[in-house]
Amino acid sequence: MFGIIAGALGTLVAGAVSVSKALGVIGLAVQGLKAIGNAIASIAKALGIVKPETDIEEIGDRALQAEQYGIQPENYESYEAWIKKIEGDDWGYDPEKNREISSEEKILKGTEVSVAATMERFPEFPISEFLTVTEKNQDFFSTERMYEIGKLAKTDQDAFGKVVNYVTGSAKDHTTVNDAIGLLMDIEKTIEPEISDDNAYDKAASFYVME
Questions:
Q1: pTM, rounded to two decimals
Q2: Could you give the C-alpha distances from 199 to 138, 195, 203, in angstroms and in order?
Q3: What DSSP character marks residue 101?
């Protein structure tokens, strides 16, 4: 049983690491990297996996320290259970301990954790591909937009899947594309209530990534 869990988590982490590496090579300054990382983490926050008050750098710092203490995800029944453990304060987390580790490394680790948590919750969706489009479509990845998409994932997995497939460019049929545009328009109106229908449509249409 342990071997099955470890193997599944290994595959999960490998996919999450690929997203983190892709984000790392975009060449963003630390603040830009942190903004994207926090946006990605917003999905996990909306799903209730990560505490809403924790920023991406702290998530990464906690994960790095936990691993230094031998608190590894493969020792837990799920990746989410591991996150719940490292978010607690009963294992010796010290915010001053890893001051020599760069903010960039912590942010990328936090991004890896957030991606893995989301991939675990939705193994049938191309989450890794969805999140690696940051290089092509950085404007899409705002904290507000990702949080709303996370809420969508929590309440309607079919709708979430349509948005994921639309943004990755894998949605081809008109019905799926139009449904995704409608969902993204609703999200834009939630973020910016004064936006016109035309502008909301233009914004949603701009998020489609051509393969």
A1: 0.86
A2: 19, 6, 6
A3: S
